Amino acid sequence: MSQSILITGCSSGIGLCAAETLLKKGYRVFATARKESDVEKLRELGLESLQLDVNDSTSIRNALATILEKTGGTLDAVFNNAGYVQPGAIEDLSRDDIRAQFETNVFGVMELTTLIIPIMRKQGHGRIIQNTSILGVVAMPYRGAYNASKFALEGFTNTLRQELKNTNIHVSIIAPGPIETKLQDNAHQHYVETLKGKQTIHTELYKEMEKFLILPPDKKHFITSEPDAVVKKLIHALESPNPSAHYFIGWAAQIFAFLRRILPDKLMDSIAIRSVRT
Fold it and tell me: Which of 11, 88, 91, 108 lies 20 to 30 angstroms, CA to CA, from 118?
């Protein structure tokens, strides 16, 4: 019997690449997306797809119920991939802006994961894999809401791994550096909706930041990796008898993770600030 996996955020990028790759490898993939139009596109690609909005508890529960009905009550793995970036200095973001960031990047993941754990306990096995970010390990300026959400997800997942230590449920974190996806385009859209046109002490910096957010495809930064770099590590986390707790994707993420371990905070701050300005 093929292994089943639920993947969130499959409309493009990492989620789509993971869904298509795992389907080819023989997994039974439940590829979910927030918009019904994206669900239809996924079905046209031959994927079992259904609507799942991580911001909506009813949507989460309905999607999971449908999957369990199809599988006879089992689910071998979940890859929590859905998320977005809310750019901006912390002092310029409203409580609603920050709450929205946490609803998608943290609270939806927590709710879905805690609903799946009893299923995995009952069947005696499972894989829980979270797509966080190197920005859940190293903070960078003007991404405060995103940093905080990914740090929170790291803390949640590390605790979960400890609590499930004596079970056959393995918990892994995938922490990518820059990946060639629509994440940056979506970040620009959120910037337009929340900050563009507002006069703040950071206005001039935002104008420079916006240029970076709308780079054409042929001008992407040389440190950017392709989504399949993430999927390779995802497969290891799914199939290894002893999966890693953390997978850092791309040399930039690996270097920053290493520097975080060895450098004092003030020096790390200086490096993070300079990396944003280059």
Answer: 11
